[in-house]
Every structure is written in structure tokens, then in C-alpha cells.
Hints:
Blueprint: E1 15-20, E2 26-32, H1 35-38, E3 43-50, E4 66-71, E5 77-80, E6 90-100, E7 106-108, E8 115-118, H2 124-137, E9 141-144, E10 146-151, H3 153-162, E11 166-167, E12 170-171, E13 187-191, E14 211-216, H4 217-220, E15 225-233, E16 240-248, H5 252-258, E17 263-264, E18 272-277, E19 280-286, E20 289-295, E21 299-300, E22 305-308
Parallel strand pairs: 16-20
Antiparallel strand pairs: 1-2, 2-5, 3-4, 3-6, 6-7, 6-8, 9-19, 10-14, 11-21, 12-13, 13-20, 14-22, 15-16, 15-17, 18-19
Amino acid sequence: EAKSVGSMELLSTPHSIEINNITCDSFRISWAMEDSDLERVTHYFIDLNKKENKNSNKFKHRDVPTKLVAKAVPLPMTVRGHWFLSPRTEYSVAVQTAVKQSDGEYLVSGWSETVEFCTGDYAKEHLAQLQEKAEQIAGRMLRFSVFYRNHHKEYFQHARTHCGNMLQPYLKDNSGSHGSPTSGMLHGVFFSCNTEFNTGQPPQDSPYGRWRFQIPAQRLFNPSTNLYFADFYCMYTAYHYAILVLAPKGSLGDRFCRDRLPLLDIACNKFLTCSVEDGELVFRHAQDLILEIIYTEPVDLSLGTLGEISGHQLMSLSTADAKKDPSCKTCNISVGR
């Protein structure tokens, strides 16, 4: 039968797209369309594309352009779980409205303008999931007594001559999980604390340089320090890294972390502990994780010792801007699904 002329009237093109309530794996979208279309429209077509970043992880499967067909609902509409949205990623989106005809075909509007937005970082609930995964492989706790930082001689000389003998906090790079709220946001000084299980001492090898600054653990970690869980990742390796943040209570770094990262109990957690035993502070670290500790404040070199280490420079262990393996079942969580 011939379609009535009334049903064939063209639909107006959606315009004035608004996107808000953006999280790491969802967003809300609304747009304007003619009142006369509101009763007629039965479906929305939403075209979402990841903006290709020239530095994007080449191991990742290329996202295919995705069109979501959704039954028309009152706007704004929340888009979640229809796609596997990645955190901290730029997307472009355009919409089309449609009327499903009696023969199953769609009468469609023109495509709206394309708008761009960027998804958010992992929320605390996502980091709590990563924390749970890290706890499962953390292993037993070993005692340690110093935090240490390896670097080149020039780095320490610069701190002495130009920074008032202080190691100054710097911006964390993009290593680790792509959704980590600390990347490119948190300032701090990186330290290690892992020991060799046979000697109980820091290893003699390092990927970061032949010079090592060692500082008694209680100088950075004590009951007036807050400890936060920040990340858990690997780099296509059998071993895993956890990033923890040590922030003196009330400091700028502490305020940054309080809203964004899970707070750990310093005396009782699976990663890094400071407890009082026989009147002494005792420190322990997880044996089966490589811990990367970010201390959020400047560190005075006079509080520790500086010396040269005898071992090799194992560059393969460096995590500078390291890309997380997105396929590892041990350290990835599935947001959005």
C-alpha cells in the first residue's frame, strides 16, 4: 500500500547536542529537535567514535566505528555499557533520529553536528576493584627499613645546587593504567622499597641510574602519613607493579588523593605497612609486587645517604611512560560492561 504522505514528512535534524555527567565509562546526552518530531520518533541512532591518538597503544585492537540503535526515550539519555568506553579518552559523537516504518525500514533525519568530549578517570570504586586484584597476588610481607631512589649523578647534583638540597616533587608521567587519576595530575617524588628476599637489602641493580639516595623509612612513612592505593599494572611481563601514594596528613598531595584514591590502613593492608611492635616502628612490603611509592612533598637530602651502587643498569625494568598490557587478566578491570 502507498504510504500516507503524512508519515513521510521529513524529520528535523537534531541540533544543540549537550553532553554531561561524564564518567570513565558513561555519559549523558541530549539534543534539540522539532516538537512535531517528538511524537513520531521511535529510535535514535548514535554514532560514537574514538579519536585516534597518534600515540595510542598499538597493541590495542582498533575500535570499529559504532552506531548505537536505541529506542527513543525522554532526553537526556544515559549511555553506559553499550560500548566498552575507555577512560580518559577523546570521543566524537553525532546523532540521528528515526521513525521505524511498518515495513521495517527507517525514515531518518539528517546527522547532527559532531561534538567531542573526553571520558573521565577511574573513580574510587574502579580503583577499589584494581586494589582487590592487586591484593590477590601481593604475597607475604617482608620487613624493610629504607626507601630508596636511584638516579643519575647529575640529578642529585642539580638537587643540591639548584633546589636547596631538596628532591622536588614533579608531575607523574602516564605510566600504568590509562584511567589512573594520578597520571599527569599528581606531583611527587618516586621511591622504591623492595628488598631482595635473600639479603633483606635493596637490590644492587637499577634501571634508573647508578646513584642511590636512601632514607630511613620512618622519615617518609609514620602515623602522621596517609597511604593511598593508586594503581596496579604490568607491561607485558610476568611481574606486576602497584603504585602507592604517601602523603603527610593535611598536605596538598593528601587533599588531592582524599577525593580520588582509596585510603589504606597504614598498619594493616596487603602492600605496605607501618606498625608499632615493642615500641618500635616496623615496616613491611609485599614480596610479590614491585612497589612504586610516590611521596607528595619535597625530600631533604640531608635526611638520608647518597652513594653509588655496584650493579647493572637494567633498562628493561624502567617504567617511564610504560604502557599497561590491556589484555592481562590479572591487572585489568572491565568498566562499562
